[in-house]
TrEMBL record:
<dbReference type="InterPro" id="IPR037523">
    <property type="entry name" value="VOC_core"/>
</dbReference>
<feature type="domain" description="VOC">
    <location>
        <begin position="4"/>
        <end position="120"/>
    </location>
</feature>
<dbReference type="Pfam" id="PF00903">
    <property type="entry name" value="Glyoxalase"/>
</dbReference>
<protein>
    <submittedName>
        <fullName>VOC family protein</fullName>
    </submittedName>
</protein>
<dbReference type="InterPro" id="IPR029068">
    <property type="entry name" value="Glyas_Bleomycin-R_OHBP_Dase"/>
</dbReference>
<dbReference type="InterPro" id="IPR004360">
    <property type="entry name" value="Glyas_Fos-R_dOase_dom"/>
</dbReference>
């Protein structure tokens, strides 16, 4: 039986730039990574490496990827929205109220075009 989502793995030809985006926008932090044969960066949320960035020679073709999005739960919605505005990032805010839940989603894309939503 599954107990949790462990991590997502993203391929990019610009690993440092992608990692910096996740650090600056989502607040993830670089941390230890095993010495794999391919270069990469692990980004941590608290003590869990949740985004694994893998360096590739060519940018991946988005048409070949079936992942539509991944999501994080978060706190501090006003500060997060201020960060998005400070970095002049496009996003869509969706207030989910019609099914008797109190969730606000921020939908945005990382520099590689990966769709992410942050749930408050």
């Amino acid at each position: 039986m599954l107990t949790a989502l462990d991590h997502v793995n993203l391929h990019t030809d610009k690993p440092d730039a992608l990692a910096q985006w996740y650090e600056n926008i989502l607040g993830l932090e670089r941390g230890p990574r095993p010495n794999f044969s391919i270069p990469g960066i692990w980004l941590y949320l608290n003590d869990q490496p949740v985004v694994h960035v893998v360096e590739v020679d060519q940018p991946p073709e988005h048409a070949a990827v079936s992942l539509e999005h991944f999501a994080f739960r978060a706190e501090g919605m006003a500060a997060f929205e201020a960060t998005l505005k400070q970095h002049d990032l496009q996003y869509e805010r969706v207030d989910l109220t019609e099914i008797d839940v109190d969730i606000v989603q921020y939908n945005l894309r990382d520099p590689m075009g990966t769709h992410i939503h942050i749930d408050f």
